[in-house]
Write a structure and sequence with these properties.
Radius of gyration: 17 Å
Structural class: alpha+beta
Distance between the termini: 26 Å
Strand content: 25-35%
Largest sheet: 6 strands, mixed
Length: 205
């Protein structure tokens, strides 16, 4: 029996439905750290940080960290899946729903895609039709604690139904666009959609 089959049997023995695990994934209790480039550092009071909502919006908006946290806050628990084949179950995140930010900015009808801009020029892309869900968050806390720097402090996007590279760390700009613009990993061999249950890992999958 191979590693992945053993992992699924171990889940079943713990009373966890192994169907929660996408094909080709293994469950872990760890939270591996993977990213491109350095970990950014900010002033302790985050006075040098903001989040911009821009592009095809009626109300271009710039939010300080305090202003972001003053918006309606939610806590959601869900599974996350990394393209490098690990999955982590029942992760708990605190933040604001992306739909709340979309309403605040007044996203225009002709917008079809979200381009996430993070530090150091990193981007990733998603269709808006895939993001109008209650479990897509701009999150600042994990498991009840502020995000650690290597996991995206002060905020990251979190969407559980796509491979986790689509959840950009160190988020700075949410750009609403009328066209798709593949980001860093999408231009370098990763699938444009990234659905873990369809194993959309690479070009051609």
């Amino acid at each position: 029996m191979g590693f992945f089959d053993r992992n699924r049997k171990q889940l079943a023995a713990r009373g966890i439905d192994p169907d929660r695990l996408p094909p080709g994934q293994y469950s872990t209790d760890r939270f591996p750290v993977l990213h491109v480039g350095d970990v950014p550092r900010y002033a302790e009071d985050l006075s040098d940080w903001d989040l911009r909502l821009t592009g095809l919006v009626r109300n271009p908006t710039t939010l300080s960290f305090d202003e972001l946290r003053a918006l309606p806050t939610v806590e959601e628990t869900f599974d996350i899946h990394c393209v490098t084949k690990w999955s982590k179950f029942d992760t708990r995140w605190t933040g604001v729903r992306l739909t709340t930010l979309m309403e605040l900015a007044g996203v225009q009808p002709e917008a079809t895609h979200l381009i996430e801009h993070a530090e150091f020029g990193y981007t990733t892309n998603l269709p808006l039709a895939d993001l109008r869900r209650d479990d897509v968050l701009v999150a600042w806390a994990f498991d009840g604690e502020p995000l650690e720097p290597e996991h995206g402090h002060p905020v990251r996007l979190v969407l559980p139904h796509r491979y986790f590279w689509k959840s950009a760390k160190w988020l700075r700009v949410l750009e609403f666009a009328a066209e798709d613009r593949p980001g860093f990993w999408e231009r370098n061999g990763y699938h444009n959609d990234g659905d873990p249950f369809l194993e959309q890992r690479h070009w051609g999958d």
